[in-house]
Amino acid sequence: MASLTKYPEPLVFGxxxxxxxxxxxxxxxxxxxFNIVAxxxxxxxxxxxxxxxxxxxxxVGEEIVYVKENxxxxxxxxxxxxxxxxxxxxxxxxxxxxxxxEFSENTVVNRExxxxxxxxxxxxxxxxMMKENDTDIKFFCVGYTVIKYYLNGYEISNLEGHKxxxxxxxxxxxFLPEEVVDGLYAAVAAADLxxxxxxxEPIAAIQVAIPENxxxxxIALIDVGAGTSDICITKDGSIIGYxxxxxxxDKITENLIQEYLVDFATAEKIKMIGPNRKTFTYKDIMxxxxxxxxxxxxxxxxxxxxxxxxxxxxxxIELNGGKPVSAAFVVGGGGKIPLYTARLAEYLDLPLERxxxxxxxxxxxxxxxxxxxxxxxxxxxxxxxxxxxxxQKNNFIFVSVNGDRIKxxxxxxxxxxxxxxxxxxxxxxxxxxxxxxxxxxLNHKQKFIRGAAGEAAMIKLNDKEVGMNHMIEASDKIEINxxxxxxxxxxxxxxxxxxxxxITFEINNVLLSCPRYxxxxxxxxxxxxxxxxxxxxxxxxxxxLSQLMQFxxxxxPHEVFVNGARALADTKIYENFKxxxxxxxxxxxxxxxxxxxxxxxxxxxxxxxxxxxNAVQEKAAAKEEKDSSLPKPNESVTMHVIVNGTPIxxxxxxxxxxxxxxxxxxxxxxxxxxxxxxQKVDGMDVQHFSPLHEGAVVxxxxxx
Length: 704
Hints:
The chain is of the alpha+beta class. Helix content is 26%, strand content 33%. Strands 11-6-1-2-3-19 form a 6-stranded mixed sheet, sandwiched between helices. A hairpin with a 2-residue loop joins strand 24 (458-461) and strand 25 (464-465). Helix 5 packs antiparallel against helix 7 (294-319). The chain is elongated and about 150 Å long. The N and C termini lie far apart (119 Å). Mean pLDDT is 82; it is low at 1-5 and 605-634.
């Protein structure tokens, strides 16, 4: 072998700590090729690991030392100090979180915004995962994949550089319990090694088995180890699901132990009988020798292989949204068991050729410079662990947040935001919070007023003020004062509707301008009314008859006509409508009120001032006093007039006005005969209170 000094840096050490063995691989990347320069395998002497979980940390540590020293020997004494590892999926938890961020104005999306968005998605995924797993166990995020990005609500492949009002992301995050991570760290530390990078076994395997250009397809990858079958699903260029099944090669071995009454090691050898071998001789625990054929072994394990394949297929379909995938790739030693791929194809309802054991054909970019080592499905995950080093350098670091020591999984792009989430602050504590919006309807259309923006969180990193997306390193000291919430939105009626105009009506042939009002929840309110959540506002361009009478401070006469038609209390009176009635006392008060209003100098601006109603009501008492002081006739006289050709006699008063003729002359005011009521004396148009004289000729009729 050539001198090691010729190898370029870094020289990557990957360690696959499996249920049945520990595989150590050392190599380096050269262009698109990965060159393996050392390889070592150590099978566990006892069941120190079960289903991918370390049970005996010290024993596993000793075996790691053995692998490390063997590799160092192959490397001509070169010392290995850092290692990349992968965690098994036995205790893997996954969840999808939705990140969402809304800008106050159209904004160009940069990498910082995208990272913050993804972090919010990871935070929500963690919350969703904890809700589904009601436990006090602390979980760490050890990787995430963005399934979809959204720009203004529409799906998009890349947000960077686009202008947006809002952005979103669906994030698939993976989590491991703290004790699993701590167990791996402890075993590696026992071998005097430092973890430079940690990933998940399915993530490591997919880097080798399913290239990115294949991930547009709906494919399942199954890494069948000894203790677990780790599953990964791809679709539309993304990883859409991770899963784990605690059934793999060991289940078959345990079945053979019972069938042939042998120890675990012998059962492993029986399991691995090649189909081309004629017979295999073994001794049972009683010391009796037996010969068996491969077919006999396959017949014994067929039921358990079918069970594992069926459960794996069910899990794949579950992770894929209830549908089978288009194809499945199998890696790992457990997948080499005869019948496995055939049964998996059967349960996935796929042609046999679409379920394949991946090995040499996906390792075309790998050069192996180690004698006796061949390309094999067993190498897919160990090589993937090494390759993951180049994708992201990560481990666990410690930082201080508000005086507390926080442990973070370092993906080589940690920010203050990540530390804040690790400390327990939510995104609501970190980003400015708007006060509550105020929602209302205006003329039946939904409207709202935004609450005020709060102040952003105040952050200091090592006593220097920084932003939320500032990168952090081990031992950093971070101080965070949570963001504040802005004031809730508020407004008065005059700020959302224009109450400056007036409405003019013709009241008994006299024009009257009235203030325009708004109705809130069915009640008239002034411009100073403070809006409440859910208020229903209507800007009125009419008065009802009862509102007009209330404004004029008179009782509604018995017979009132609007544009010549009899009106009721809720009849709507719009701009320039004509209102008329025959009621001497009320007409007198109404006309007196209109004259007073029209003759006022410097008329009050009635823009939206509903208090006018109250002012008019207050004047009512004064008017009543004035009315009581009006001169009353002190003697009665008799007057003769002709109404529509009929002579009538008026009596009982000292003087008479036009409306007095209705006391003696039968004119039907209840039936409207036209648009206007014509009133004439001696051929001249008169008003209701025009005076009459002896012998006056009166005309009363409806005009079309």
